[in-house]
Protein backbone atom coordinates (compact mmCIF):
# COMPACT_ATOMS: atom_id res chain seq x y z
CA UNK A 1 0.00 0.00 0.00
CA UNK A 2 2.68 2.49 1.02
CA UNK A 3 4.92 1.58 -1.93
CA UNK A 4 2.06 2.25 -4.34
CA UNK A 5 1.25 5.51 -2.56
CA UNK A 6 4.56 7.27 -1.80
CA UNK A 7 2.82 10.17 -0.03
CA UNK A 8 0.76 7.90 2.22
CA UNK A 9 0.09 9.69 5.55
CA UNK A 10 2.04 12.73 4.28
CA UNK A 11 0.63 16.21 4.87
CA UNK A 12 1.65 18.37 1.91
CA UNK A 13 1.37 22.10 2.59
CA UNK A 14 1.08 24.60 -0.28
CA UNK A 15 2.28 28.03 0.86
CA UNK A 16 1.46 29.96 -2.31
CA UNK A 17 -1.78 31.54 -3.46
CA UNK A 18 -4.00 28.76 -4.89
CA UNK A 19 -4.38 28.97 -8.68
CA UNK A 20 -5.22 25.46 -9.83
CA UNK A 21 -6.47 22.30 -8.07
CA UNK A 22 -4.30 20.04 -10.24
CA UNK A 23 -1.29 19.84 -7.90
CA UNK A 24 -3.49 19.22 -4.85
CA UNK A 25 -5.37 16.47 -6.67
CA UNK A 26 -2.05 14.87 -7.58
CA UNK A 27 -1.08 14.80 -3.90
CA UNK A 28 -4.27 12.85 -3.21
CA UNK A 29 -3.50 10.37 -5.99
CA UNK A 30 -0.14 9.73 -4.37
CA UNK A 31 -1.92 9.05 -1.06
CA UNK A 32 -1.16 12.32 0.67
CA UNK A 33 -3.27 15.05 2.22
CA UNK A 34 -2.96 18.47 0.54
CA UNK A 35 -3.36 21.53 2.73
CA UNK A 36 -3.47 25.07 1.37
CA UNK A 37 -2.02 27.65 3.77
CA UNK A 38 -1.02 30.68 1.69
CA UNK A 39 1.69 32.80 3.27
CA UNK A 40 1.13 35.57 0.76
CA UNK A 41 -1.95 37.31 -0.54
CA UNK A 42 -2.22 38.81 -4.00
CA UNK A 43 -4.49 41.73 -4.80
CA UNK A 44 -4.96 43.66 -8.01
CA UNK A 45 -3.62 47.20 -7.96
CA UNK A 46 -6.36 49.54 -9.18
CA UNK A 47 -5.63 53.08 -10.32
CA UNK A 48 -7.77 55.82 -11.86
CA UNK A 49 -5.78 55.72 -15.09
CA UNK A 50 -6.05 51.94 -15.53
CA UNK A 51 -8.20 52.21 -18.64
CA UNK A 52 -5.73 54.51 -20.39
CA UNK A 53 -2.79 52.35 -19.32
CA UNK A 54 -4.58 49.26 -20.57
CA UNK A 55 -5.22 50.87 -23.95
CA UNK A 56 -1.56 51.88 -24.16
CA UNK A 57 -0.46 48.40 -23.12
CA UNK A 58 -2.30 46.89 -26.04
CA UNK A 59 -0.21 49.08 -28.37
CA UNK A 60 3.04 47.47 -27.20
CA UNK A 61 5.13 45.25 -29.47
CA UNK A 62 5.69 42.77 -26.62
CA UNK A 63 3.93 42.09 -23.33
CA UNK A 64 5.91 40.15 -20.71
CA UNK A 65 4.19 38.13 -17.97
CA UNK A 66 6.17 36.21 -15.35
CA UNK A 67 3.28 34.94 -13.20
CA UNK A 68 -0.31 33.79 -13.28
CA UNK A 69 -1.10 36.55 -10.77
CA UNK A 70 -0.08 39.18 -13.31
CA UNK A 71 -2.30 37.54 -15.93
CA UNK A 72 -5.25 37.41 -13.49
CA UNK A 73 -4.93 41.10 -12.65
CA UNK A 74 -4.55 42.05 -16.30
CA UNK A 75 -7.63 39.97 -17.08
CA UNK A 76 -9.63 41.80 -14.39
CA UNK A 77 -8.76 45.13 -15.98
CA UNK A 78 -9.70 43.89 -19.44
CA UNK A 79 -13.06 42.64 -18.20
CA UNK A 80 -13.73 45.82 -16.24
CA UNK A 81 -13.23 48.01 -19.29
CA UNK A 82 -14.62 45.49 -21.78
CA UNK A 83 -11.43 45.32 -23.81
CA UNK A 84 -10.57 42.03 -25.51
CA UNK A 85 -7.35 40.45 -26.74
CA UNK A 86 -8.54 40.98 -30.31
CA UNK A 87 -7.41 44.58 -29.98
CA UNK A 88 -3.80 43.47 -29.45
CA UNK A 89 -1.58 42.99 -32.51
CA UNK A 90 1.74 42.48 -30.75
CA UNK A 91 3.45 39.45 -29.24
CA UNK A 92 3.44 37.96 -25.75
CA UNK A 93 6.21 36.36 -23.68
CA UNK A 94 5.48 34.21 -20.61
CA UNK A 95 7.63 32.65 -17.93
CA UNK A 96 6.15 29.19 -17.45
CA UNK A 97 3.60 26.97 -19.12
CA UNK A 98 0.96 27.77 -16.50
CA UNK A 99 1.30 31.48 -17.14
CA UNK A 100 1.14 30.77 -20.86
CA UNK A 101 -2.01 28.67 -20.40
CA UNK A 102 -3.67 31.50 -18.46
CA UNK A 103 -2.83 33.90 -21.29
CA UNK A 104 -4.18 31.46 -23.85
CA UNK A 105 -7.50 31.35 -21.98
CA UNK A 106 -7.56 35.14 -22.18
CA UNK A 107 -7.15 34.96 -25.94
CA UNK A 108 -3.45 35.75 -26.27
CA UNK A 109 -1.06 33.62 -28.29
CA UNK A 110 2.25 33.24 -26.46
CA UNK A 111 5.26 33.59 -28.76
CA UNK A 112 8.07 32.98 -26.29
CA UNK A 113 8.62 30.83 -23.16
CA UNK A 114 12.12 30.33 -21.73
CA UNK A 115 13.49 26.80 -21.38
CA UNK A 116 13.69 27.25 -17.60
CA UNK A 117 10.79 29.02 -15.92
CA UNK A 118 12.63 31.83 -14.15
CA UNK A 119 13.35 35.49 -14.84
CA UNK A 120 17.14 35.06 -14.86
CA UNK A 121 16.94 32.52 -17.69
CA UNK A 122 14.30 34.61 -19.46
CA UNK A 123 16.59 37.63 -19.80
CA UNK A 124 19.30 35.45 -21.33
CA UNK A 125 17.06 33.80 -23.91
CA UNK A 126 14.61 36.56 -24.85
CA UNK A 127 16.14 38.10 -27.97
CA UNK A 128 13.50 39.58 -30.27
CA UNK A 129 14.64 41.03 -33.58
CA UNK A 130 15.04 44.80 -33.97
CA UNK A 131 14.98 45.09 -30.16
CA UNK A 132 16.16 48.70 -30.10
CA UNK A 133 12.97 49.84 -31.79
CA UNK A 134 10.56 47.77 -29.73
CA UNK A 135 7.97 48.95 -27.23
CA UNK A 136 8.17 46.28 -24.50
CA UNK A 137 5.94 46.25 -21.40
CA UNK A 138 6.51 44.07 -18.31
CA UNK A 139 3.34 43.37 -16.28
CA UNK A 140 4.55 42.74 -12.76
CA UNK A 141 3.84 42.46 -9.05
CA UNK A 142 4.86 44.88 -6.32
CA UNK A 143 7.72 42.66 -5.14
CA UNK A 144 9.17 41.87 -8.56
CA UNK A 145 12.87 42.57 -8.86
CA UNK A 146 14.61 44.80 -11.38
CA UNK A 147 16.19 41.94 -13.35
CA UNK A 148 13.99 42.14 -16.44
CA UNK A 149 14.16 45.93 -16.65
CA UNK A 150 17.92 46.09 -16.08
CA UNK A 151 19.24 42.98 -17.82
CA UNK A 152 17.41 43.07 -21.14
CA UNK A 153 19.47 45.00 -23.71
CA UNK A 154 16.66 47.41 -24.62
CA UNK A 155 14.19 49.70 -22.87
CA UNK A 156 11.45 47.93 -20.90
CA UNK A 157 8.46 49.78 -19.47
CA UNK A 158 6.81 48.40 -16.32
CA UNK A 159 3.28 48.32 -14.98
CA UNK A 160 2.63 47.03 -11.45
CA UNK A 161 -0.74 45.30 -11.78
CA UNK A 162 -0.85 43.41 -8.47
CA UNK A 163 0.39 43.72 -4.91
CA UNK A 164 1.80 40.94 -2.74
CA UNK A 165 1.21 41.02 1.04
CA UNK A 166 1.93 38.69 3.95
CA UNK A 167 -1.01 36.49 4.95
CA UNK A 168 -0.65 36.96 8.70
CA UNK A 169 -3.77 34.92 9.47
CA UNK A 170 -2.06 31.76 8.16
CA UNK A 171 0.89 31.80 10.55
CA UNK A 172 -0.63 29.95 13.52
CA UNK A 173 -2.35 27.40 11.31
CA UNK A 174 0.89 26.50 9.54
CA UNK A 175 2.85 26.26 12.78
CA UNK A 176 0.23 23.88 14.14
CA UNK A 177 0.49 21.68 11.06
CA UNK A 178 4.28 21.33 11.08
CA UNK A 179 4.54 20.81 14.83
CA UNK A 180 1.67 18.37 15.33
CA UNK A 181 1.88 16.20 12.20
CA UNK A 182 4.50 13.47 11.97
CA UNK A 183 5.03 13.50 8.19
CA UNK A 184 4.95 16.96 6.64
CA UNK A 185 6.24 18.49 3.41
CA UNK A 186 6.14 22.24 2.81
CA UNK A 187 6.06 23.49 -0.78
CA UNK A 188 7.46 26.95 -1.54
CA UNK A 189 6.59 28.56 -4.87
CA UNK A 190 8.22 31.98 -4.43
CA UNK A 191 10.89 33.85 -2.46
CA UNK A 192 8.05 35.95 -0.99
CA UNK A 193 6.59 32.91 0.77
CA UNK A 194 10.06 31.95 1.98
CA UNK A 195 10.54 35.41 3.47
CA UNK A 196 7.28 35.21 5.42
CA UNK A 197 8.07 31.70 6.65
CA UNK A 198 11.58 32.68 7.72
CA UNK A 199 10.51 35.84 9.54
CA UNK A 200 7.21 34.74 11.07
CA UNK A 201 7.39 30.96 11.53
CA UNK A 202 11.00 29.85 11.94
CA UNK A 203 11.52 31.95 15.10
CA UNK A 204 8.71 29.93 16.71
CA UNK A 205 9.82 26.55 15.33
CA UNK A 206 12.84 25.58 13.17
CA UNK A 207 13.61 24.58 9.59
CA UNK A 208 13.90 20.97 10.77
CA UNK A 209 11.28 18.26 11.09
CA UNK A 210 9.69 18.54 7.64
CA UNK A 211 10.58 18.13 3.98
CA UNK A 212 11.44 21.45 2.30
CA UNK A 213 10.43 21.71 -1.37
CA UNK A 214 11.30 24.54 -3.77
CA UNK A 215 9.59 25.11 -7.12
CA UNK A 216 12.77 26.39 -8.77
CA UNK A 217 16.32 27.60 -8.28
CA UNK A 218 15.38 31.18 -7.39
CA UNK A 219 13.15 29.97 -4.55
CA UNK A 220 15.79 27.41 -3.61
CA UNK A 221 18.35 30.22 -3.35
CA UNK A 222 16.02 32.14 -1.02
CA UNK A 223 15.55 29.07 1.17
CA UNK A 224 19.27 28.41 1.42
CA UNK A 225 19.89 32.05 2.30
CA UNK A 226 17.27 31.75 5.05
CA UNK A 227 19.08 28.75 6.53
CA UNK A 228 16.96 25.91 5.18
CA UNK A 229 18.13 22.64 3.65
CA UNK A 230 16.23 22.09 0.39
CA UNK A 231 15.25 18.47 -0.10
CA UNK A 232 13.23 18.60 -3.33
CA UNK A 233 13.39 20.70 -6.49
CA UNK A 234 11.87 19.60 -9.83
CA UNK A 235 13.53 19.71 -13.23
CA UNK A 236 10.55 21.60 -14.66
CA UNK A 237 9.46 24.50 -12.48
CA UNK A 238 5.75 23.86 -11.89
CA UNK A 239 3.82 22.79 -8.79
CA UNK A 240 2.67 19.61 -10.50
CA UNK A 241 6.26 18.60 -11.25
CA UNK A 242 7.24 19.55 -7.71
CA UNK A 243 4.65 17.10 -6.36
CA UNK A 244 5.97 14.40 -8.72
CA UNK A 245 9.51 15.07 -7.49
CA UNK A 246 8.38 14.93 -3.86
CA UNK A 247 6.63 11.60 -4.44
CA UNK A 248 9.76 10.21 -6.08
CA UNK A 249 11.88 11.22 -3.09
CA UNK A 250 9.43 9.74 -0.58
CA UNK A 251 9.18 6.53 -2.60
CA UNK A 252 12.93 6.11 -2.20
CA UNK A 253 12.54 6.01 1.59
CA UNK A 254 9.77 3.40 1.58
> How would you sum up the major sheet?
6 strands, mixed
What is the N-to-C succession of helices and strands? EHEEHEHEHEHEHEHEHEHH
Distance between the termini: 10 Å
Oligomer: single chain
CATH topology term of the largest domain: Rossmann fold
Number of strands: 10
Mean pLDDT: 93
Classify the secondary structure makeup into a structural class: alpha/beta
Could you walk me through the main structural features you see in this protein, from its secondary elements to its overall organization?
The longest helix is centred in the first third of the chain and has 13 residues, at 68-80. The chain is α/β, with parallel strands linked by helices. 37% of the residues lie in helices and 20% in strands. The model has no long low-confidence stretch (mean pLDDT 93). Helix 3 packs parallel to helix 4 (97-105). The chain starts with 10 loop residues before the first strand and ends with a helix. The protein contains ten helices and ten strands. The strands form two sheets. The protein has a six-stranded mixed β-sheet. The chain is elongated and about 55 Å long. It folds into two domains: 11-39 and 167-251, Rossmann fold; 43-165, 3-Layer(aba) Sandwich (Rossmann fold), CATH 3.40.50.10090.
Keywords for this entry:
20% strand; Rossmann fold; 254 residues; alpha/beta; six-stranded mixed sheet; four-stranded parallel sheet; 2 domains
Amino acid sequence: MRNALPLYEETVIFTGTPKSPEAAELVKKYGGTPVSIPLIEVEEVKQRDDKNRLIEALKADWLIFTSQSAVASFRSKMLRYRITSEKYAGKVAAVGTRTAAALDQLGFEVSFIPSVFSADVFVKQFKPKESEQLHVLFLKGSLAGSLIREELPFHVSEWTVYETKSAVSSIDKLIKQITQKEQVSVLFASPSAVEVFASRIVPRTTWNGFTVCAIGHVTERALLKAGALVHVIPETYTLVELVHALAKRKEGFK
